[in-house]
Amino acid sequence: MEQIPEPARERLLTLLGIFEQHPGEMLKSGGIEALTGWARETIRKDLSCLNGEAAGSAGGYRAQVLIPALKRALGLDSPRRYCIVGLGRLGSALLNEESFARGEFELAAGFDTNVNRVEILGGKTPLYPSYKMSEVISRLGIAIAILCVPREAAQSAAEKLAAAGIQGILNFTPRTLTLPAAVTVRNLYVADGLRSLAVAMGRREKD
Amino acid sequence: MEQIPEPARERLLTLLGIFEQHPGEMLKSGGIEALTGWARETIRKDLSCLNGEAAGSAGGYRAQVLIPALKRALGLDSPRRYCIVGLGRLGSALLNEESFARGEFELAAGFDTNVNRVEILGGKTPLYPSYKMSEVISRLGIAIAILCVPREAAQSAAEKLAAAGIQGILNFTPRTLTLPAAVTVRNLYVADGLRSLAVAMGRREKD
User: Fold this and answer.
1) pLDDT tens digit sequence for B135-189
2) Chain B residue at shortest CA distance from A103
3) Angle, to 10 degrees, between the axis of helix A133-140 and the axis of helix A151-163?
4) Would strands A61-62 and A26-27 be described as parallel, antiparallel, or unpaired?
5) Domain span at A45
6) Whole-prediction pTM value?
7) Structural domain total, chain B
8) Is residue B199 part of a domain?
9) A89/B82 touch (CB, cutoff 8 Å), yes or no
10) Residue B88 sits in the same domain as residue B160
11) Is the minimum CB–CB distance between A75 and chain B shorter than 8 Å?
């Protein structure tokens, strides 16, 4: 896995999504080129990183074979546990979106500083008051946190998560987090998504 | 604006976020280099796209001056109207996150096929049954839709939005949308965020 360079890994992740949208089909590199805009030589080279069994034939790449091979190559073949920190409207909505885990991620816990909220919210996921975060994360081996707390609580909650051994944070807050290099962060603040979309739209209007 | 190439625009958007995190401060290109990992020459070159008033002095770039200049350069200075389509748990959570609009976006409407849901959900935003989508979008001049419908409804809802004149879609569904080139799409499916985070974490573990 470590031999695959980062841009190729990101393309492989996109290819995984494409094969999943076409289960049971054969896809040719030319067809993938049309979907992604990447040169078919790049696509062939990226997919040649996979084990021989996943190599394409003259007929193309078989989605059914490529999907598990890509998951293995990208380290998505063994499920990781995650938790949701902050159970306001957005956090509790995500609590109930378990369907999105696709067997790659397992929602193991939810946390909120408000003990009443923890007691009132129902559902299948065990919920805890935030002061139990460190103990629960370490006991359950939780690797990832989805951060949905208010902006002003984000940095301190993230620091507690880092101290508890969390390796990755999906950050839904507007706050840019400053954390030790051992913690990987992806920012998913909705307003930034709107901005990025608007900037791309602006460009398109000029085309 | 059209002279700024796409990678520079994306960096300028990130710089805008950084200046906003440091309002009232002077930032030097070396400090920004430390935050972003981009060479200071690149940062200086990107920011030189802005009008002269925003040029840095020996003391650095003044956040207070750069923020409005960057918003203007990126076309974020006049607010655009958006709507939320699909008012299940996630959609209705986003309905109440108006605070994220930062004056650049104005939430103008929410839509759901379920008329009861439209009637029951309260709040400041006017809600409509989906069959009124085309009329309302055109009457209110809504440019952007946040798509939160179930996966199986995503493509047809997106096509209706495109036909109604929507220019951009923030897609929270797992479905990859196939739309006319005039519609810009950004995918924000949460499970893809988890995947991308996990793939980055996997790489880091090997470092």
Assistant:
1) 999 999 999 999 999 999 999 999 999 999 999 999 999 888 999 999 999 988 8
2) B191
3) 50
4) antiparallel
5) 6-73
6) 0.83
7) 2
8) no
9) no
10) yes
11) yes
Angle of helix B40-47 versus helix B29-36 axis, rounded to 10: 110
Residue B18 and residue A92: Cβ atoms within 8 Å?
Answer: no
Residue B113, domain member (yes or no): yes
Same domain, A15 and A94: no
Rounded-to-5 percentages of helix, strand, coil across chain A: 50, 15, 35
- Token pair 């790449």 is found at A61
pLDDT at A3 > cutoff 70: no
Return the structure tokens found at A188.
């998913």
C-beta of residue A70 within 8 angstroms of C-beta of residue A56: no
Tokens of B83: 């709507």
CA A203/CA B4 separation, integer angstroms? 9
- Given a contact cutoff of 8 angstroms between Cβ atoms, the answer to whether B26 and B66 are in contact is no
Which among A89, A90, A184 is the nearest to B201, CB-wise?
A184
Distance of CA A95 to the CA centre of its chain: 15
Task: Quickly tell me which residue has 């008033």 as its tokens.
Answer: B53
Give the C-alpha separation, B32 to B34, whole Å. Answer: 5
Please indicate, yes or no, whether residues A90 and A183 belong to a single structural domain of this protein. Answer: yes
**CB atoms inside a 10 Å sphere around CB A120:** 10
> A85 and A178, same structural domain?
yes
| Residue type present at position A192 | D
Domain stop point among B25, B58, B73: B73
